[in-house]
TrEMBL record:
PANTHER family: CHLOROPLAST PROTEIN-TRANSPORTING ATPASE (PTHR30612:SF0), SECA INNER MEMBRANE COMPONENT OF SEC PROTEIN SECRETION SYSTEM (PTHR30612). Residues 249-387 form the Helicase ATP-binding domain. This is Uncharacterized protein. It comes from the Eukaryota. Residues 130-421 form the SecA family profile domain. The lineage of its organism: Eukaryota, Sar, Alveolata, Ciliophora, Intramacronucleata. The keyword Coiled coil applies. InterPro entries: Helicase_ATP-bd, SecA, SecA_DEAD, SecA_motor_DEAD. It comes from Paramecium pentaurelia. Keywords: Coiled coil.
Length: 421
């Protein structure tokens, strides 16, 4: 019996309209199952049906737009029961002392009708404030969207129709790219088309290479090697929008950075990892990844460690390292790629430069990737990192607050009777 795709919260007419469209689309069973799960996240059918009609012959484009739409709000659930709220209050009180902040979280999940499972998953992590907890909820929700998209890529068969759809996806992607950036790049578009044609036609792939090319410029062989390793580890190939983002960020102008807006659900975590790997291996540079949260930094460094190993790139994080090794070089600074939040990097720079503890060893700071740059430079622009220690005469406090430059200039040292304090 064919699976019925419906949302029981929708009206009979809405479900009937949806069915009439789906029948004409000739979806396979995997696509139907995925769509049935996704529509449960919408209160009404209007947006789903609109996207289906707009992208009737392009399943990939439909999925891309649907996931963007899903990412605009954390998912709608049925109202929380009284018992579920009591259980949540109990879990929150184990980590947050402020009753006001606990009530703020409870109001937040009720007003937004956040999925109970997502909130329960967030309570398993360490957090101290309402803001940290709500940020965790957003991270877990983003992971659920990425998982949906990965399942789609894994289950789709490799057919001629899929290849045509992939070509159209890339064409549409570059039309949007050209419109936003007011510039075109036909050479890059052709390169991406060539890469995905080769991935679809596995017999054309040359699998007899195990590393990147020696050129600092990205070559066809580099992208194929990258995609094959992603497939080997995650069981899916990167999407064109992910590969385009990585290439554009990698090909920055000399002595200039580059800013990119990555939508929720487009796989920003993987994009950052791929960029860090390329900078490390192709340009032989150290990479610091600055995230907005210590929880996020720890999670990404630990979960992606095996993936980095496939490219012979060492990765670690600097969260809490000074507590374990108060003096001397922290082990994490032996790694080519280091994840951390602004405070952890600032504190380590202070310990290394001012206190002269050798915290960072002789590792050079060469490339920096800032995740959630608006969070660091706008929301957190007034944050400070204080480094204090006891001496015989006084307690010296040195502050470092230049978040944008991530550089420290030694100045204003205090001396008394020719004695360095």
């Amino acid at each position: 019996m064919a699976e019925l795709i419906e949302n029981k919260n929708w009206s009979a007419e809405e479900n009937q309209n949806l069915q009439s469209i789906i029948i004409q689309m000739n979806l396979n069973q995997n696509q139907k199952s995925l769509l049935n799960e996704q529509i449960q996240r919408f209160q009404n059918s209007e947006k789903v049906i609109q996207l289906l009609l707009e992208h009737f012959n392009n399943w990939d484009k439909f999925q891309e737009c649907l996931i963007k739409e899903m990412s605009q709000t954390i998912e709608i659930e049925t109202d929380w029961t009284h018992q579920e709220l009591l259980n949540l209050h109990q879990r929150l009180s184990q980590q947050i002392e402020s009753e006001e902040e606990i009530n703020e979280i409870i109001q937040f999940v009720q007003l937004n009708k956040i999925n109970v499972k997502i909130v329960e998953e967030a309570t398993k992590f360490e957090f101290k404030t309402a803001n940290q907890f709500m940020q965790l909820v957003g991270i877990i929700f983003e992971q659920s969207l990425i998982k949906d998209k990965q399942e789609l890529i894994i289950t789709q068969p490799n057919t001629e129709q899929d290849q045509t759809s992939q070509e159209q996806t890339i064409k549409d992607l570059f039309q949007e790219f050209n419109s936003i950036n007011q510039r075109s790049n036909e050479e890059l578009q052709n390169l991406l088309q060539q890469v995905y044609q080769s991935l679809n036609n596995k017999q054309e792939l040359d699998l007899n290479f195990d590393n990147f090319t020696s050129s600092p410029q990205l070559q066809y062989e580099d992208l194929i090697f990258l995609c094959l390793k992603i497939k080997e580890h995650f069981s899916y190939y990167p999407r064109p929008v992910q590969l385009l983002s990585v290439i554009e960020l990698y090909n920055h102008n000399p002595n200039q950075g580059r800013l990119a807006q990555i939508f929720t659900g487009e796989g920003k975590t993987l994009i950052i990892a791929l960029l860090a790997i390329l900078l490390s291996q192709k340009k032989n540079s150290n990479v610091d990844v600055v995230t907005s949260s210590p929880v996020l930094a720890t999670r990404d460094a630990e979960q992606l460690e095996e993936f980095y190993k496939k490219f012979q790139v060492s990765v670690s994080h600097n969260i809490g390292g000074s507590k374990k090794v108060p003096q001397g070089m922290l082990p994490c600074y032996n790694s080519k790629v280091i994840y951390g939040d602004p405070h952890s990097f600032q504190a380590d720079i202070l310990r290394h430069e001012y206190s002269e503890r050798g915290t960072m060893g002789d590792r050079k700071q060469e490339y920096i990737i800032v995740d959630e740059v608006d969070s660091m430079l706008i929301d957190g622009n007034s944050n400070k990192t204080l480094l204090s220690f006891m001496c015989q005469e006084c307690l010296i406090q040195i502050r470092y607050s230049d978040q944008s430059g991530m550089k420290y200039v030694r100045q204003n040292k205090t001396y008394q009777q020719n004695k360095k304090l």
